[in-house]
Amino acid sequence: MIPISEGCLFISFSDRMILIFLNNQLILLKYGRNEDADRSRWRSIRVMYFTMFLSSIGFTIVITSIWPYLKKIDNSADSTFLGWVVAAYSLGQMVASPLFGLWSNHRPQREPLVCSIFINISANIYYTYVYLSPSHKKIHMLLARTFVGIGAGNVAVVRSYVAGATSLKERTSAMANMSACQALGFILGPALQAALSFIGETGIRVNAILLQVNMYTAPALLAACFGVINILLVFLVLREHSVDDHGREIRAINYTPEEVAVAPEVEGDIDQIAVLTSNILFFIILFIFAVFETISTPLSMDMFAWTRKDAVLYNGIVLTAIGFESIIVFLVVKVVSARVGDRPLLLGGLTVIFAGFFILLPWGNQYPKIQWADLKNNTMPVVGLAPTPASSSSLEPTGCPSEQTWCLFTPVIYLAQYITADILIGVGYPTCNVMFYTLYSKILGPKPQGVYMGWLTASGSGARTLGPVFVSHVYTILGPRWNFSIVCGIVLAAIILLSAMYKRLIAFSVRHGRMEE
Q1: Class of domain 267-366+411-517
Q2: CATH code at 35-244
Q3: What's the rounded Cα separation, in Å, for the pair 44 and 253?
Q4: pLDDT, tens digit (0-9, with 9 covering 90-100), for 383-431
Q5: Which of 42, 119, 420, 485 is the most buried if burial means most Cβ atoms within 10 Å?
Q6: 429-466 pLDDT, tens per residue?
């Protein structure tokens, strides 16, 4: 027994355990490496991977059917309201993420996880029953999607847990795996929706619980079932783990009535300027990717004269291909980052994104096919050519709408440009995504990361909300030349900011001289 200070008694049990009696409170401090603990730690991390996968599934599994479901239950809904329904998810996540993160800093992380997953399950069930409301059905759908987003606020807890349960060497690989699970969820969500479309609009009615299982409600019910599995895994498999930067497990357990696990205090302050810079850069990355996702369909219809059906099909194929490309990038990043480091990869990813949007700038002297508003004469002239008769007035008009005045003087974007840009952005975005989460968690160090991860998630959700609003106005009024020029300017500003703050974006342990870079 060695008294350390007044009211504090230090007792060493073994080389892996210390017992401290501090202020009439018994604290057990475990440290070092243990094979059983490592196995338990990685099982828990895999539960977090699954939670992240389900979070992205919750967003995409109904995304392609929201509009027809909304029109079916409430014909008064318009495309503007659809925008609010889609944005409701991100808004809910933006509000909830810091709150769940704060909760996880002061209580066992299992608590906010179970609560958020329960909210997600309830929200998906709510979504399936909105058609029963006697009035304001579209408002009920808006609320349901908002609550799904609130439930998805647990990604802050998930990333905080993984950051605290991995060493610096393990961090990049774990964050890449988690991002790959998130990307896989975004890919499989629409695929599951498509697979369930065979049920049809009528589907099956379960009179006992007044439930209509059809192509619109079945995906939400499936997401709710996934949530139940997730809660069971959290209860049965998840354990609280915390390791230092070298991977040695360090956990302080307060033997109080609450049985709360807390991390020991660590000397040194977090670099708040580096934290703010990371949040700004992350906002920019998600903002420009939201712009890219939103603009792909209208741009392809305007530039290539695709029909609505063609645009949905071809862009669906493109986005799916980008999703699989992202998974490959995540796996490659894990290897490359060990050789070159996080910051060079982040800078390289931003540079590739800049190149992708720069390629999309219109050039040349060929112009898009014009879709004239007055179809009574069945004419669809092309700039520089005489009017040509349409084959049939019943055909869907295609081309660049004449009411978008920029169509008359803006050169066409070629399909080769579009595909090349897709490939480049499909490389740059996932690289930046993984590197931001990895570098951000290293900047925070061993301090509790729940609130900080919550703010990062909130900034990303805000970007996904503002991105579509920005592009819908700038593209419609000014066209792709201005739209992509502004995006290039924003990415260039991000590159300059990263370069200026390059030396400050370092790991907590490196900054305080406890580990070499």
Answers
A1: mainly alpha
A2: 1.20.1250.20
A3: 18
A4: 444 444 444 444 677 888 888 888 888 898 999 999 999 899 989 988 8
A5: 119
A6: 888 888 887 888 788 876 666 778 778 878 888 887 78
Yes or no: say if 104 and 160 are a contact pair by the CB < 8 Å rule.
Answer: yes
| Separation CA 392–CA 516 (nearest Å) | 71
| HSE-up (13 A, CA, CB side) for residue 96 | 24
3-state secondary structure of 238: coil
Q: Which residues have a Cβ under 8 Å from the Cβ of 351 and sit 6 or more positions away?
A: 428, 495
Give the Cα separation of 227 and 148 in Å (integer).
11
Report which of 65, 51, 72 is spatially closest to residue 195, judged by C-alpha positions.
65
Q: What are the two backbone dihedrals, phi and then psi, of residue 250, each rounded to the nearest 5 degrees?
A: -130, 115
- Partners of 389 in the β-ladder: 379
- The closest of 68, 18, 87, 452 to 264, measured between CA atoms, is 18
Question: Please, what is the end-to-end C-alpha distance for the chain in angstroms?
Answer: 38
Check if 35-244 and 267-366+411-517 are the same fold: yes
Give, for 20, the enclosing helix (H) or strand (E). Answer: strand 17-22
What amino acid occupies position 233? L
| Residue that the structure tokens 């318009």 belong to | 78
What is the signed CA dihedral for 127, 133, 138, 139, rounded to 10 degrees?
Answer: -90
Residue pair 8/27 in contact (Cβ under 8 Å)? The answer is no
Give me the residue spans of the domains in the chain. Answer: 35-244, 267-366+411-517, 369-408
pTM for this structure? 0.69
Determine whether 116 is exposed, middle or buried from the number of CB atoms within 10 Å of its CB (0-12, 13-18, 19+): buried
Q: Is the pLDDT of residue 257 over 90?
A: no
Taking residue 237's Cβ as centre, other Cβ atoms within 10 Å add up to: 13
